[in-house]
Design a protein that fits this description.
9-stranded antiparallel β-sheet; 13 helices; disordered N terminus
Length: 384
């Protein structure tokens, strides 16, 4: 365990977004002092009162300053250069997840190579270099249309991923992707998208929440329900798979595996995240211990909290920026929805930006989801 400074542990988190904001709330409960590396005073965590230093996540001096003030460094995003994370570790700082694990979340091709070489089930894929159009055409000749085009790094919330329906769409798709190294994957026929939100400590403790069923809209997680509408056998297999993957990459902290349950009943790895995750937000109200509390407990190598659900079912709906402007303008209408829990991030409104989420609990996922949808619609300026 870290040698704590007087007054309790100090955790440094690279990034000041909504994940850092909610981690800050959990840190207060646990007597932890959270310091974030933020870009500006308008970052969500800073506006919520977290201590902060300001700089870019790829600035070695800013990262070194953060690490010098903390017992352990962690992340609310994957956009820190791996070599800089490893440089902090070589200087004697505790960094979780470690740089080698972080790379699996940063680089989709590296993740595919890592998991494929270890025998895990991933979609057919290949890197794209040189004449991209020709390579995509050849890939599709083997694996069929449509195919999925991805940026290896930097993509999130629907950015950096596009489905290419046919040969005549290649040029438009590659233009829309913008600059960056590309890869192509076979399209998977999906019956259900799942996420396993697990937690692992440096000493190897492991726990996982019940599987989460997710609905993606334009590449953004729009809704999530717990437990996922899958059989006990699928739930058990998916959870076991997440544990194997976490151990394989030596993950520390929250470790999320996004999976495709195919129409033929197979589980295929999509992506992983090594930080608190959108798919785990309902754990704040629905579980004995939230993902944010457990992330902090894990990186400090404390005993993990109980991941059992307190309720039969829970649902989460994201609130995205749109024509209605700032969702805080519609708070009164949303608060009138009985059973809904609102979480607004204090971020400046912009189209498509995650501005908050709503959770609800209930006897079934359908009932919980209906309540969460009504409140989210009210926050977006619609009738509840």
């Amino acid at each position: 365990m870290p040698n704590f400074t007087a007054g309790g542990p100090v955790v440094g988190m690279v990034g000041g977004g909504q994940l850092a904001r909610m981690t800050h709330q959990a840190a207060i409960d646990l007597g932890i002092d959270l310091v974030v590396l933020a870009r500006s005073e308008r970052d969500a965590a800073v506006r919520a009162g977290s201590r902060a230093i300001f700089g870019e996540p790829d600035d070695p001096s800013a990262l070194a300053e953060l690490a010098s003030r903390c017992d352990v460094v962690t992340f609310d995003h994957e956009h820190v250069p791996v070599d800089l994370a490893m440089q902090l570790a070589r200087a004697g700082h505790l960094v979780y997840p470690a740089g080698t694990a972080l790379k699996v979340a940063q680089d989709k091709l590296h993740a595919r190579d890592t998991f494929h070489s270890a025998g895990f089930h991933v979609p057919p894929y290949r890197a794209l270099e040189g004449d991209i159009s020709v390579q995509i055409e050849r890939f599709a000749a083997t694996h069929g249309w449509p195919v999925v085009l991805k940026l290896r790094t930097g993509g999130y919330d629907g950015r950096g991923v596009t489905v290419v329906p046919s040969l005549r769409h290649i040029d438009a798709a590659t233009t829309d992707m913008g600059p960056g190294d590309l890869m192509v994957e076979a399209h998977v026929e999906i019956a259900q998208e799942l996420a396993i939100v697990g937690i692992r400590t440096p000493s190897g403790q492991w726990a996982a929440y019940p599987p989460v069923g997710t609905l993606q809209v334009d590449g953004i997680c729009n809704e999530a329900v717990m437990p996922a509408p899958v059989s006990p056998s699928v739930a058990s297999t998916a959870t076991d798979l997440a544990k194997e993957l976490a151990e394989h990459v030596a993950a520390v902290g929250i470790f999320v595996v996004e999976l495709f349950l195919t129409t033929t009943g197979d589980l295929v790895i999509n992506e992983v995240a090594l930080r608190p995750h959108n798919s785990g937000h309902a754990t704040i109200e629905a579980a004995m211990t939230s993902q944010f509390h457990n992330h902090l407990r894990a990186i400090l190598d404390w005993p993990l909290g109980d991941t059992s659900l307190l309720v039969p079912a829970a649902a989460m709906v994201n609130v995205l920026g749109g024509a209605a402007g700032d969702p805080r303008e519609h708070m009164v209408a949303a608060l009138a929805v009985k059973g809904a829990s609102l979480h607004l991030y204090g971020k400046d409104a912009a189209p498509g930006r995650k501005l908050g989420h709503v959770t609800a609990v209930g006897p079934t996922v359908e009932q919980a989801l209906e309540v969460a949808r009504r409140a989210a619609m009210a926050l977006s300026g619609g009738a509840s």
